[in-house]
Amino acid sequence: MLQNYELLFIISLKKAGEKSHEALVKKIQKVITDSGGSMVTLEDWGRRRLAYEINGEKFCNYILMEFEIENEHIKKITSAIKLMPEIIRHSLVQKRIKSEKELAKEQRIKEKIAAKEEQEQEKEKEVAKPAVVEKKTEPEKPKPTEPKISLEDLDKKLDDILKEEI
After folding, report:
1. Who contacts 32 (Cβ-Cβ below 8 Å, separation ≥6)?
2. pLDDT along the chain (166 residues), means of 10
3. What distance in Å separates the CA atoms of residue 112 and residue 49, rounded to the nearest whole number?
4. Nearest to 73, CA basis, from 39, 40, 41, 31
5. Are 11 and 86 in contact (CB under 8 A)?
6. What is the pLDDT of residue 132?
7. Model-level pTM greater than 0.70?
8. Domain spans of the chain?
9. C-beta of residue 6 within 8 angstroms of C-beta of residue 93
10. Burial class of residue 55 in the structure, from the number of CB atoms within 10 Å of its CB (0-12 exposed, 13-18 middle, 19+ buried)
11. Has domain 2-94 been given CATH number 3.40.50.2020?
């Protein structure tokens, strides 16, 4: 029985060169098709920075493949990938395909979430509108400021006050 698989691998720029990674991708595709598999998708993510250096490299090419193949041929593919020195890391996982029932259920859930979000937004608008309409504020008038008094004038006034009380 055919199973769906996803293969993500990182190609070394030093070992494979900048543009020769296409030949390596074709080589892997050939291994898959010779084993009785069929390609579903191929995505070239291009040159990307690695999270950490691997063998002195900071940048590598990322390739994502999805294919269908029988389970018994997976060991042959992984051993072929391990023997390729240009590939410094790879990840091969079995991909689960959702049934029509599951896809319909997800769609209904998304629609319910969208409807609830719309209701919440409408409630927020209704609550916000009356508050804005009812509240009419006049611009604040600046308070009259008293003229600033110098320190010398202040000292004189203090002296006058102290002399009066004695």
Report:
1. 38, 39, 65, 67, 69, 77
2. 88 77 88 90 89 88 91 90 90 84 88 91 75 59 73 85 74
3. 39
4. 31
5. yes
6. 47
7. no
8. 2-94
9. yes
10. exposed
11. no
